[in-house]
Write a structure and sequence with these properties.
Radius of gyration: 25 Å
Bound molecules: ligand C2E, calcium ion
Largest sheet: 8 strands, mixed, barrel
Number of helices: 13
Length: 352
């Protein structure tokens, strides 16, 4: 036994890799059989990594380490499975470690910065709010979230990162609201952050610290937030709604949640995903989805934000269907805080 819930099984001889595979499969099957504990049926899973001596390692330490690397891979591809060690895994493991340590360092040194994309009322052409989008300032390059959010989520660094970003965001919002008192800040929340008990106290504390009303903050969550423990998430969303913070469902239509949840959630906003908006004028199926979402939101007393609006044609299509809250390159790309400040002082929100 290695400690925690990890075990080592040492086989002194084996006839072939496929025999080892069959043994691993049998162990997974036997471990996975449900047992009764205090009247409840409990089942556990197992992930197995296999390393061979002398092919994969020259010492027992290395053999154990490589079996562990293989097990990590098995877990990653979906648990209840096994993996044989390959040298490639070691390369990936060290690249991964490197990426993680770089992210941690970037966080500690304050190298993540906030960009903001205006969310515009197309009737007035002015911003109602801004969405906070993280960027990583790595030397001379600005790294986009697609490259780091996923890793930050897996290492749970996204939690302090978001709190740090929120602090900067509220500092900026406080200034902007001097000129535009109704402006709101919309912040993306990862599923893992949403499951933290500290989330609501943290938000309360931040709003108090900046003396901002709860409705100046919107939280964007995706359907994936609901996957793990929908009941708990629904409860938490209700507590947030009670607090007065508004909730938006991001990337609507791209996830797996059912309309059953939509009915139960205290959502204020559905964000229509860019993938549907980009089909306007091109694909009648996308248009049907956009129209249906607008009708659905209206009937459920929610508002819609159309995301990724890039063309006048898309804007006209949306206006004709009374969707006036628009986010997209047509108005502005995400920009740094100073540019937003300048826009607001100049009282306009379009980029030149
Ligand atoms: P998202 O929340 O769906 O954000 C919208 C993304 O679409 C942004 O990409 C934005 O730059 C892009 N976008 C907006 N309008 C247009 C348009 O007209 N055309 C095109 N082509 N793109 C448009 P970005 O900044 O790269 O962010 C990607 C994703 O990373 C975000 O998608 C969000 O899921 C995640 N993300 C960003 N910041 C944070 C954060 O602070 N926390 C968390 N948990 N996730 C974040
Ligand atoms: Ca978002
Ligand atoms: Ca989105």
């Amino acid at each position: 036994r290695l400690g925690g819930d990890e075990f080592v099984i040492l086989l002194e001889s084996y006839s072939s890799n496929s025999q080892l595979g069959r043994i691993a499969q049998k162990i997974i099957q036997v471990v996975g059989e449900p047992i009764e504990l205090s009247g409840h049926l409990i089942s556990v899973g197992a992930s197995i990594g296999i390393a061979l001596y002398p092919d994969d390692a020259a010492s027992s330490d290395e053999l154990l380490k490589n079996a562990d690397v293989a097990m990590y891979h098995a877990k990653q591809i979906g648990r209840n499975t096994f993996q044989f060690f390959t040298p490639r895994m070691n390369v990936e493991a060290s690249q991964r470690l490197f990426a993680e340590s770089q992210l941690k360092q970037a966080y500690e040194q304050g190298n993540f910065i906030n960009h903001y994309q205006p969310i515009v009322d197309s009737l007035s052409g002015k911003a109602k709010g801004v969405e906070l989008l993280l960027r990583w300032q790595r030397d001379d390059t600005l790294v986009m979230p697609g490259e780091f959010i996923c890793i930050a989520e897996e290492m749970a660094l996204i939690i302090p990162m978001t709190e740090q970003a929120l602090h900067r965001g509220l500092t900026d919002l406080k200034l902007w609201r001097k000129y535009r008192p109704d402006l709101f800040l919309s912040v993306n929340l990862s599923a893992i952050h949403f499951s933290q008990d500290s989330l609501i106290p943290m938000l309360k504390e931040k709003l108090k610290q900046f003396d901002l009303p709860a409705n100046s903050l919107k939280l964007e969550v995706t359907e994936s937030t609901l996957i793990k423990d929908p009941e708990k998430v629904i409860q938490k969303m209700r507590s947030l709604a009670k607090l007065g913070v508004t909730l938006a469902l991001d990337d609507f239509g791209t996830g797996y949640s059912s309309l059953q949840y939509l009915k139960q959630l205290p959502l204020d906003i559905l964000k229509i995903d860019r993938s549907f908006i980009s089909g306007i004028g091109i694909d009648s199926a996308d248009e049907a989805i956009v129209e249906a979402t607008l009708v659905l939101a209206n009937k459920l007393c929610m508002n819609c934000i159309a995301e990724g609006v890039e063309t006048k044609e898309q804007l006209d299509y949306l206006s004709a269907r009374e969707c006036y809250v628009i986010q997209g390159y047509l108005y502005s790309k995400p920009v740094c805080a100073e540019i937003i400040t300048q826009f607001i002082i100049d009282d306009k929100m379009e980029l030149p």
